[in-house]
Every structure is written in structure tokens, then in C-alpha cells.
Specification:
single chain; alpha+beta; Threonyl-tRNA Synthetase, Chain A, domain 2; 4 domains; five-stranded antiparallel sheet; 17 strands
């Protein structure tokens, strides 16, 4: 089965991205089509051995689904330009073949043979019909058209097998077409094809790509000789020049220039007869001159060349380095959190109480008063007692009036000023106290965030340190499959983890897939790897899309949920149910209270927890980060419970995590039981006091999470109802509705309305 990529479109995704990335994503398809048009134009113009013109047909056959139409338009324009607008017999046949190839590719997208057969048949039929009226040239026309068809088929198959977007053999065929097209263009003794080949080969030598330069030289040299035998001295000179630069001075700009020039002169002069040596040397010199004025970064080495097939062996060292770096970052963040706490503990604590208000009032008002000696020395105890008596009045009213002054302060000669100064001092004292509390909360949140992120990075480094055993053969098969679809992968790896599960990761330029295409891709990759894969998880980031194929698990999760608000339509409960590549996740968060504020807290906690779990965080780490977010959300006290169950779909091992949540329920072997301990919700304290436990589930078992509003009459009736529903084999959605409706009726009868929610998960055989 072949997968059609006709509907795949370049996408920037729904999330906002940077302007530069957005621009690149929008321009990339236009650039691809523009290059396809120019290559088609060159292919239509190029003529081999004075009569053969296979490049236009071959490029149209081999281009991707998004480029073949514009490539065919360029080839048609090149054919007409070659005959200066006059429709010769050969050009008519080739145009008929082009039209048939385009029609075949539209009718059978993604398939090579139907389009090739249609083009060959159209070319042969048109040549046969036109040869009937030709005088003496009919057989020659048939032979030339047959040769064009065979060469075009070989070129198209080569481009399908090695797409030009991926560096390697696929770039040689378009290079040959360009060399053949430019080889027939000359400005006096200056041959543009020779100049372009010299510039490209010197550029590759400067970048240290010796093998690529030699391969390009061989392909383009053959194309130049096929265009015009008089270009043989130029081809020989370019071959010697490329060999000298690639072997003697790879990656060194000045030395490579000298070696290339010397080799070019030697090669051109050694060919007999040397009649065209001047033209060859002039053309090569012009190409070198143009290359020398290119940006310096284009002429710098791109790194040593790696032999084919070494990527899987080098993947483990790269991942090991990444794991080491992540571990170093984790240690740095952890030490930073410890340093913040140590510095904070080393600072002296300012014990500010109401005595600070008294002292500040004395320093502001009484220090310059004439009766200071009498009030603060002779009558010190009475004055201090009177000032202490102002505390409850200030805490209740926030201000003072002269009649609020106690008898100990009746002798004050500035009662109005005393009241105003004491009120200002108390307001300053209260604001300083609030700022201190807020700073303490921020410090706690900061250190908790540092610590949680450090732990998360530690987990990721551990995972990267053991990426599994690479399987190069399967990786190559999967990469070849995507290449045959016209979507050559940027990276492709198939690994076997420690538990014997096969995983595949394919990274492509940012692409959008439909569910049907993902399912078809899973079937194809399953056949290539001889393992049953689920439809892949799609991750898009920074202009790239990664498809993560995971082996089909032994179990399958079926979800169901139902809920009702205490009043109105807004509920403080939030549910998240999804499956990651290896586990089924179910989350229930209950915001404190009811109504809109509770809904904000509940949905925030559930959404953040789900995102963190999808990113690879553990339940404890996710809870710690969500706790920080809830604590810093507003100045008002807010919080939410967290009820989470994660089930490994390969082994059935389930992990429950509860932070302030109501007891949950497990149904195993037809028997139901409540699970869960008492703990505080998130967002209340600096840390999370959650409870975690491990259980084992099998196919046919249920896991049920409920909010506290459902347990208005206790858990006994829930256990009975779950056992009845399990015996009847009810679907999770039906069980959730039954629990919610029953609990609502009980709550109305008891007169204690609350948000009621139930989330149900059932395991089934995969």
C-alpha cells in the first residue's frame, strides 16, 4: 500500500511562533517550486549528443508531489526556447510525453510506474504517428524518442530513490541537467557550464566535502562531454583540479584555490589536441573568481565527512553527551536552589512587631518635643502602656482620633499629630509585614521551581543515557520508505529499549498529517519493522515535525466522564483523559469552592498537569510545578486537588497519585475497593504533600476517580454500584453518568449541593 501525500501541507502550527520562523515556513514552498521550475527549464533546454533531451521528462517524473507541475511547465518552456518558439517534430513528441506524465501523476499520486508508463506510451505513440509522414527520418525519430523515454525513466527513478532535497546521490541528476543546459551557452570563449562547475566544485572542496566534489565533477564532466565533445579538455581539467583540491587541501580556502588552479592547468594542457585549452582555462578561472567573492561562511569547512552507515553507531555517543549536559544543568539548578536557601538563612531576621510602630512614632514626633523627658523618662512605663493600648484600635480601624487616646496619653500636647504619626507608622509596619510574607512566598516558590526542574532534567538525562539498542537495518528501511513518498527524513532511528519494545522516530520538515495518513503510515512502518505500531504521536517544533512510533501495547484504554455543577453550569472540577505512547493517563482536579474561581483553579491545574505529563514529567514533579503556579496565581488563597492515575499499557502497572483528592476506586476481578489517603490540596503550602502507590490491573478492570461532591453519603454505595456495573460490563461513559446522577439525587436529598464529577477508565485487550 502506498500513502498519498497530496494532502500534506506545510504548516506553522496553531501556536504563535517567531516572525522569522513564520516567514521561513511561508517562503519554503515557494522556494521549492521556484527551484523546480528553474531545474525543469534547464532540463528542457539541455540536449545530449545533439539530439537527446531526456532531462525535462525525467525531472518531471522524479520531482515531489508539490513540485512536478511547475517542473513540467519549466521543461515545456525550455523545449520551446530551444527551438526558438518553433514546434519541431521532436519537441511535439516531448511535449506530448510531458503532458501524459503530468496527467499520470495527478491521477495516481505518489506512484511512479503509472506516470512513467503514460509518458513513455504518449512519447512512443506521438513519435510513431509523426514518423509516418516523415521523409527518411521516421526510424531515426522513433529511435531518439525511445532513447529519451529510457533515459527519462532512469532519471525519474533515480530522483524517486534519492530525492534532491536530501544531500547525496539525488543532487547529481539535477546538477547534470544544469551542467548540460549551461554547457551549450557561451559568451565568446567563456563557457557558462564550465564556469558553474568550477565554482561548485571549488566550493565543496573549501567545505571539506572531498567525496561530494569528486562525485559532482564526474557527473557534470560526463554531462559537458555529452553536450559538446569539444568540452572534453575542460572536463579533464576540472577533473584534475577537483582531485588535487580534494586530496591536497580539503577545507583550506587559499590552498584549495592554488591546488584547484594548478590541477586545472595541468589537466587542460595534457589533453591532445589542446586547441580549446584557452577557453577551458578562461571559463574555469571565471568560475573560481565568482566563488572567491561568495560569503566567507560558505567557504568554511562544514565538518569532517562521515561515511554512510555510521549514524546509528554515532547516535549513542551524541545522546550520552546530551545526557551529561542535562545532568550538569540539573545539578546547577539544584545547587542554585540550595544556595538561595543558604543565603536566606544566613541573613539576620528582623523581628518586627508593634514595638516598631512605637519606636517609629517616638523617633518621628517625640524626639523633638519639649516634654520628651517627662513622657519617655519620668513616665516611661505609663507612656509605653498607653502606646500599647493603641494596637487594637489601629488593627480594627486603621486610623486614630484624639478621643481614641487612652488616659496614659492624655497629657500629650500634640494629640492630633500623635494620632496621625501613629497611624502612618502602623500602615508602614503592616505593608512591611505583608512584603516580608510575599518575599518569603516568592523565595519558596523560586527554590521549589528550581528543584522541580532540576529533578525533571535529571529524569530526562537518565532516559537519554539509555536510549536503547539501535537497529540500523530497520532504520534504513524506514528512511527509504519515507524517501520514496517524496518526504526524505531529516533524521530516522529505530531502537529496541531495555524491555524489548521497538520504537521509531522520524523527523521531517514541518508537515501536517491527517488521521488517515497517520494510520496508513503506522501500517507501513509496522510491516517494515515486523512489529505492530500504533498511529504515531506527532510533535511539531521549530519548523520540524517528529513522528514517534511506539509498539502496539497489550492493553487498550477506554475512557468515560460525566459531571454536574453545584449551581448553574460552571463546575470547579476538571478532567483530562489521554494516552501517551506507553501509558493511559487520567486526571481529575477539583478547585476549592464552587463557581467561576473554582473552575479557574481546577482547569489550570488539570491543563498544566496534562501538559507536563505529555512532556515526560513524573506525577510528583508535575504536581510540584502546578503547586507553584497555583500559589503565585493571585494574592487570594486558592488551591486545587490532584487525582491522577497512570497505567502502563504494556504491563498493566498503574500508579496513583493524590494530593488532597477524594478516595478513588479500583475494580479488579469484579471486586471494587476504595483507595486514597488524606492530604492537603495543591497551592496551599510551599510543597506538595501527595500520596503515591502502585497497583496492578488487567484487561477488564476499571479505575474510577471522583470528586468529593460524589461521596456525600460515603463510599459504600459507590463500591456496590461499581460491582454491579462491572458485572454487567457497562461502558465507562455509562458508569460515569450513573454515578453522577445517583450522587446528585443523594446530594439534593441531603441538602448539600456540590460539584460532582466521575472519570472512569477501563482496560481492554489491545
Amino acid at each position: 500500500m502506498q500513502v498519498s501525500f497530496r494532502t500534506i501541507q506545510t504548516s506553522t502550527g496553531r501556536k504563535p511562533v517567531g516572525g522569522a520562523l513564520r516567514a521561513r515556513a511561508a517562503v519554503r514552498p515557494a522556494l521549492r517550486q521556484g527551484c523546480a521550475f528553474l531545474l525543469g527549464l534547464a532540463g528542457g533546454w539541455a540536449v545530449l549528443y545533439g539530439a537527446l533531451m531526456p532531462f525535462g521528462l525525467g525531472l518531471t517524473l522524479g520531482f515531489g508531489e508539490d513540485c512536478f507541475a511547475v517542473g513540467a511547465a519549466g521543461a515545456a518552456l525550455g523545449l520551446l526556447a530551444r527551438s526558438f518558439g518553433a514546434l519541431t517534430v521532436e519537441s511535439i513528441c516531448l511535449l506530448c510525453g510531458l503532458g501524459a506524465i503530468v496527467a499520470g501523476r495527478w491521477l495516481w499520486p505518489g506512484r511512479f510506474l503509472p506516470a512513467a508508463a503514460a509518458g513513455g506510451a504518449a512519447l512512443a505513440c506521438s513519435a510513431f504517428c509523426l514518423s509516418l509522414g516523415a521523409e527518411g527520418g521516421g526510424v531515426e525519430l522513433l529511435l531518439f524518442c525511445g532513447a529519451d523515454a529510457l533515459l527519462a525513466g532512469a532519471i525519474g527513478f533515480g530522483l524517486r530513490r534519492f530525492p534532491p532535497e536530501k544531500p547525496g546521490a539525488g543532487t547529481l541528476l539535477p546538477a547534470m541537467a544544469c551542467a548540460a543546459a549551461l554547457g551549450s551557452l557561451a559568451l565568446g570563449p567563456l563557457v557558462l557550464g564550465v564556469a558553474a562547475c568550477a565554482a561548485a566544485e571549488y566550493l565543496l572542496c573549501c567545505q571539506g566535502k572531498g567525496r561530494a566534489a569528486l562525485a559532482l565533477c564526474a557527473a557534470t564532466g560526463a554531462a559537458l562531454c555529452a553536450v559538446d565533445p569539444e568540452l572534453a579538455p575542460a572536463a579533464a581539467g576540472l577533473s584534475c583540479a577537483t582531485g588535487a583540491a580534494a586530496l591536497l587541501a580539503p577545507g583550506r580556502r587559499v590552498e584549495a584555490l592554488a591546488a584547484y588552479a594548478g590541477g586545472c592547468v595541468t589537466g587542460a594542457l595534457c589533453v591532445q589536441p589542446p586547441g580549446n585549452a584557452f577557453s577551458a582555462l578562461l571559463s574555469a578561472g571565471a568560475g573560481l573568481g565568482v566563488a572567491c567573492f561568495l560569503p566567507r561562511q560558505w567557504l568554511t569547512p562544514a565538518g569532517p565527512e562521515e561515511p554512510p552507515g555510521e549514524t546509528p553507531q554515532e547516535e549513542r555517543p551524541r545522546l550520552s553527551v546530551a545526557a551529561t549536559r542535562l545532568e550538569a544543568v540539573a545539578e546547577s539548578l539544584s545547587s542554585l536552589a540550595e544556595t538561595v536557601n543558604e543565603v536566606y538563612d544566613a541573613f539576620p531576621r528582623r523581628c518586627e512587631n508593634f514595638r516598631w510602630v512605637i519606636d517609629n512614632t517616638h523617633d518621628t514626633l517625640c524626639a523633638n518635643c519639649g516634654r520628651r523627658e517627662s513622657c519617655w523618662k519620668q513616665e516611661y512605663a505609663a507612656t509605653l502602656e498607653g502606646m500599647e493600648a493603641l494596637r487594637p484600635v489601629l488593627e480594627q480601624q486603621g486610623h486614630l482620633e484624639p478621643n481614641d487616646l487612652p488616659g496614659q496619653l492624655s497629657r500629650c500636647i500634640h494629640p492630633a499629630a500623635l494620632c496621625a504619626t501613629a497611624a502612618r507608622s502602623f500602615a508602614l509596619y503592616r505593608s512591611r509585614k505583608e512584603a516580608h510574607v510575599h518575599a518569603e512566598a516568592l523565595r519558596t516558590a523560586l527554590t521549589e521551581q528550581y528543584s522541580a526542574v532540576a529533578d525533571a532534567l535529571g529524569v530526562l538525562s537518565e532516559q537519554l543515557g539509555r536510549p536503547g539498542t539501535p537497529e540500523p537495518y530497520k532504520s534504513g528501511r524506514v528512511a527509504s520508505f519515507f524517501t520514496s513518498l517524496g518526504a526524505p527524513p531529516l533524521e530516522c532511528s529505530v531502537t529496541l529499549d531495555d524491555l524489548g519494545r521497538t520504537r521509531a522516530a522520524v523527523t521531517l520538515p514541518r508537515t501536517r498529517f491527517s488521521p488517515a495518513e497517520l494510520a496508513a503510515l503506522a501500517r507501513e512502518v509496522s510491516g517494515l519493522c515486523r512489529r505492530a505500531f500504533e498511529p504515531p504521536q506527532v510533535l511539531s517544533c521549530k519548523g520540524m515535525t517528529t513522528l514517534l512510533f511506539s509498539e502496539k501495547p497489550a492493553l487498550r484504554a477506554v475512557f468515560g466522564a460525566a459531571g454536574v455543577a453545584a449551581r448553574g453550569t460552571i463546575s470547579g472540577d476538571a478532567v483530562q483523559q489521554f494516552c501517551s505512547p506507553a501509558a493511559a493517563q487520567m486526571i481529575l482536579c477539583d478547585g476549592m469552592g464552587t463557581g467561576r474561581p473554582a473552575a479557574v483553579d481546577g482547569n489550570l491545574a488539570a491543563e498544566l498537569t496534562a501538559r507536563l505529563l505529555k512532556a515526560g514529567f513524573t506525577a510528583e514533579l508535575a504536581a510540584r510545578l502546578v503547586n507553584v503556579a497555583l500559589a503565585l496565581k493571585s494574592d487570594e488563597e486558592s488551591g486545587a486537588t490532584l487525582d491522577l492515575i497512570s497505567v502502563d499499557l504494556y504491563t498493566g502497572t498503574a500508579r496513583l497519585f493524590k494530593a488532597g483528592a477524594a478516595p478513588g476506586f479500583l475494580v479488579h476481578g469484579g471486586r471494587a475497593r476504595a483507595v486514597g489517603d488524606v492530604s492537603l490540596p495543591m497551592g496551599i503550602l510551599g510543597g506538595v504533600n501527595g500520596q503515591s502507590r502502585m497497583v496492578h490491573l488487567a484487561a477488564g478492570d476499571y479505575a474510577v476517580l471522583v470528586s468529593d461532591g460524589l461521596l456525600v453519603d460515603g463510599p459504600g454505595w459507590v463500591v456496590q454500584q461499581l460491582e454491579l456495573s462491572a458485572a454487567a460490563g457497562d461502558a465507562p461513559e455509562k458508569i460515569a453518568r450513573t454515578l453522577v446522577e445517583t450522587a446528585r439525587a443523594r446530594a439534593e436529598k441531603a441538602g448539600r449541593p456540590d460539584d460532582i464529577t466521575a472519570a472512569v477508565l477501563r482496560l481492554e485487550p489491545g
